[in-house]
Amino acid sequence: MSPDNISGGKARAMVRESQESEEAGQVRTGRGLEPLEGKGLTQQVRELALYLRRLRSQSGLTSAALAEQLGLDAGTVSRYLSGDRLPELSVLGVMQDLAVSATGQAVSDEERREGRSLLYEAARARGPLPFYQVELALAREALAEQEARSRREIAELTDELARERLRRQEAEKVLETLQGAVDLGAQVDAERLETLGRARDQAAARVAELEDRVRQYEALSRLLHENRERIARMATDTVTEVEAWYTGARISVEPDVARLETADEIVMALEDARDTVDLDRASVVIAELISRYDSELVANVVGLLHDGLRPREGDRIAVQAAVRWPVQNLVRLAITFREANGNTSWGYEKMGSSRKSFFTTIASQRTSGDLAKLLVAMAERADADVDVNSLARAIRNKRGSAFAEGLRVDLWRYEADVRLSDLFRLDPGT
Fold it and tell me: Which of 32, 193, 263, 393 is 20 to 30 A removed from 152 (C-alpha atoms)?
């Protein structure tokens, strides 16, 4: 499943500008970056790296500031910009958003496709594993769009079905009244009775047709959702494999990382890695933590990092969980963030920035179906109103009105409380 092959456009023009600037010696690579010439990169990987550098330049952020926005360490971002590593599809999307955020505009669909085309070709050139990762991300996104279209069809058909049922009921009621009058000896226009009978029969036939179509679309929506969940699990496994491929030599040299069990041990390993500027080891420790899907462990690690005045490390972990974890794990982590240490205000007072990064990333990166399930599960708890409202506000700010309307359909599908659906009403006065 490849994106459209685009030979021209803004993204390609950005690559050409970056290449010309670099060849003329006018590129300000920034600390830790070096010219791409002489690195032995394939043309496709080099073009992607040039595009990523131009995005960073347009965002006005340093590499360190960009890493903070992405929830990654500076070393990983540096490898993206140097062509040594390919970003995930979601990371590319955030970088595109940051590049245009200063203008107050949104990334155009054309530029979004062009950037993805660059990543797709770079992944193909890099090897089968990163290429498979990109294809899975594209497939998951395509299934999410199909599922959203299916849900919209269900909503429209359901509305029409309700109208046709009402029409049939009204015709039957009038017919019943007229037939009662006939039974009492009243004179009733036979043609009118025949017309009403046809209207009733037509409405009944249309109701049966619509009910069948709704059942089909509901079955299709379930299949699409199950397929998307399956691909999500495959994508999660692939992330682990890609991480092992990129860092395989380091993992084999440092088997102790897999033996880290407690939050204290993990925090000590991260602090040692940061203090010695061993960014690779820090990335491996975080990847190992995220791969365990243990919400209590993650929450405790983040809390200890904030205690130790390392909130940015906690933010990175929260972002990685928000992007990579299945929805059920996100629900548990959101709850654990609030309940840690038996203090419901802990999530705000102790680790406010990580909580904000967590919800903002979920709002900007997860699908409508994922967000609906997360909101419904959180709303079941009496003490989660602030979390629900915070996530809803982040969704409205990050995704816009069209996405919010689609989310209302998802909430309806999960039979959410009307209050949840009202959080995403398009009418600003409501």
Answer: 393
